[in-house]
Amino acid sequence: MLDIKKYVKVQSLEEAYELCQNRKNIIIGGMLWLKMQNRSVDTAIDLCDLNLNHIEDKGDEIHIGAMVTLRQLESNPILHQYTHGAMKESVHNIVGVQFRNLATVGGSLFGRYGFSDVLTMFMALDAYVELYHGGIVSIQEFATMRPTPDVLVRVIIKKSPLRVVYMSQRNTKTDFPVLTCAVSQIETTYTCTIGARPLKAVTFKDENHFLDSSLSDESIQAFANDIAKKLVLGSNLRGSADYRRRIAKVLIKRALTALREENHHAY
Ligand SMILES: Cc1cc2nc3c(=O)[nH]c(=O)nc-3n(C[C@H](O)[C@H](O)[C@H](O)COP(=O)(O)OP(=O)(O)OC[C@H]3O[C@@H](n4cnc5c(N)ncnc54)[C@H](O)[C@@H]3O)c2cc1C
Fold first, then answer.
1. Mean pLDDT score, 252-265
2. Is the CB of 2 under 6 A from ligand 1?
3. What's residue 267's pLDDT?
4. Does residue 28 line the site of ligand 1, with CB under 6 A?
5. Which atom of ligand 1 sits closest to the CA of residue 70?
6. What is the assigned CATH class of domain 55-158?
7. Of 36, 100, 121, 244, which residue is most buried, by most CB within 10 angstroms?
8. What residue ranges do the domains of the chain occupy?
9. E strand or H helix that includes residue 42
């Protein structure tokens, strides 16, 4: 059980940062992950008064506050339009609506969970994370950083010509994913992000230039085989590494084929 001695609604990011330097204190998001832990907390730090529950179109950037819920990600028109529905696809299988009404972006990213749909999606968007003390870092760097006590303030998406497709494989609809896959084309660069390996998500560029000339069936297959060969995968109760490798090939191929279809409809 989670035992909390004191609860503070902080009035500034500075106050939150100072408080979270004490390892016995903890920042709370929706508390859905935290409440499953067996630990004693001196002070629970709530960011709910800091106006971080908005998704804002800033022209060249989209800003997503740390207290934005997964349900907001799912239903927000700015994100829906920018990602052509991929953001919704990335979160809509996470447990249920009531759950997604509580789970926050900050709580979903700060833990850098090895099963995370949310981390996979933001990595595919080449997003940035703003930390109160650590400043603005790319999400790729953030995913590999050693966690130090800091406040995740917001996620920043730098807008660019984008196509992105998100897919996941689950044994049952609302379970943790067996594998997550997002392919994106930002300007002319293709990337493929694979998560729930069951390790943290990782992004691959098309280093061997399979997709340079066209998204043909052959080039898509070659790219999928190449990534599946490079992937470091593990086994857990949801699937073996070998099963995940087979699934990876299928998801990458399906996602790139869907991306090709999107491109056809766009032009
Ligand atoms: C049963 C269950 C099933 C799930 N299934 C999936 C799934 O299929 N796919 C998926 O992607 N996710 C899944 N999740 C994870 C879930 O979506 C959330 O990511 C998770 O609950 C954390 O979000 P939260 O807002 O509840 O964070 P909390 O539990 O409140 O916090 C989690 C951690 O983040 C820290 N934290 C929170 N906010 C901040 C901040 N602003 N700055 C710094 N640190 C912060 C907390 O201190 C804590 O260490 C699942 C979780 C549960 C419990």
1. 91
2. no
3. 57
4. yes
5. 17
6. alpha beta
7. 121
8. 2-45, 55-158, 162-266
9. strand 39-46
